[in-house]
Specification:
Layout: H1 2-7, H2 11-25, H3 30-44, H4 49-62, H5 70-77, H6 80-96, H7 102-122, H8 129-143
Length: about 140
């Protein structure tokens, strides 16, 4: 999202806006993020209207990860896991080069995704859900 916003920003303002966006996206809670948003809107509203519009349109989606515990935020807001899976698909596809039919592509992807699922569920876990449930329990009890 940062790259998308900076693409719509004049080059002279990109460095300063980037540092403010980093502070916004790493805010400790949604309220602080909203305060930082208002500050950015006031500072760049007239200078970079397209960038500000992109920020406003995607703000709620971008800060939704702030509702989760700190250890999960970085993994939820990055696309690393998807990019790694795409790399693995491309690596396997380069070996085969030409697929005889669509079914062979689906078979390869199915086998790769099954293999990846097994690695995620048995190996080092990307998310330790036990910590999440420990964090969630007091909130659920307060709601009851």
């Amino acid at each position: 999202m940062t790259r998308n916003i900076l693409d719509a920003c004049p080059k002279a303002l990109q460095n300063s806006l980037n540092s403010q966006l980093q502070a916004l996206f790493t805010a400790p809670d949604p309220q602080t993020a909203r305060q930082l948003l208002h500050s950015i809107l006031a500072t760049y509203g007239e200078k970079a209207p397209q960038a500000v519009e992109r920020l406003e349109n995607g703000f709620d989606d971008a800060i939704s990860v702030l509702n989760y515990p700190e250890p999960y935020r970085k993994r939820l807001r990055t696309t690393n896991i998807v990019e790694r899976l795409n790399e693995e698909i491309r690596r396997r596809e380069r070996v085969i080069r030409i697929f005889p039919n669509g079914a062979s592509v689906i078979r390869l992807l199915g086998a790769l995704l099954t293999e990846q699922h097994e690695a995620w569920s048995t190996g080092r876990k990307y998310f330790d859900m036990a910590a999440y449930w420990d964090w969630r329990r007091p909130q659920a009890e307060a709601a009851d």
